[in-house]
Design a protein that fits this description.
It is a single chain. By secondary structure, this protein is mostly helical. The chain has one domain. It has helices at about 1-10, 15-20, 40-50, 55-70, 80-90, 100-110; strands at about 35, 70-75. The protein has a two-stranded parallel ribbon. The longest helix is centred in the middle third of the chain and has 13 residues, at about 55-70. The radius of gyration is 14 Å and the shape is globular.
């Protein structure tokens, strides 16, 4: 099970493939040991987007699964930093929501230094 969750975090499988493993209602799946999400996982996601290896929709799918399901939990030592970035990335599915590459790089810097991201 952790291999599947790791693959999702590393964008080796997409949302549909994750649903094939756990069922369509990911929001009601409970597991004994959720996969920890580290700042490096979020940095990887943002870098994949900056380099155009993933789409905006893939970011939104990733964020929604990580944030709103019980399959994942944030590393307690980086929780505030992760939450500050993930809450902003979640807004990308709203009309006209977008971030510049500079803002995305600033998010990476905050995650790298375990700081809370504050948008300007």
């Amino acid at each position: 099970m952790n291999t599947i969750l790791n693959d999702f975090l590393k964008i080796k499988i997409n949302l549909n493939q994750l649903k094939k493993e756990f069922g369509d209602d990911l929001y009601n799946v409970t597991i004994t040991t959720p996969r920890k999400v580290y700042a490096e996982d979020l940095i990887f996601l943002i870098n994949q987007y900056i380099s155009r290896k993933i789409t905006l929709q893939e970011i939104v799918d990733w964020v929604n699964v990580v944030w709103f399901t019980d399959l994942f939990e944030y590393n307690p030592l980086e929780e505030e930093s992760i939450a500050s970035v993930i809450s902003l990335l979640e807004t990308l599915d709203e009309d006209d929501a977008q971030f510049s590459n500079k803002e995305l790089m600033d998010m990476i810097e905050c995650l790298s230094n375990n700081k809370v991201y504050k948008s300007s």
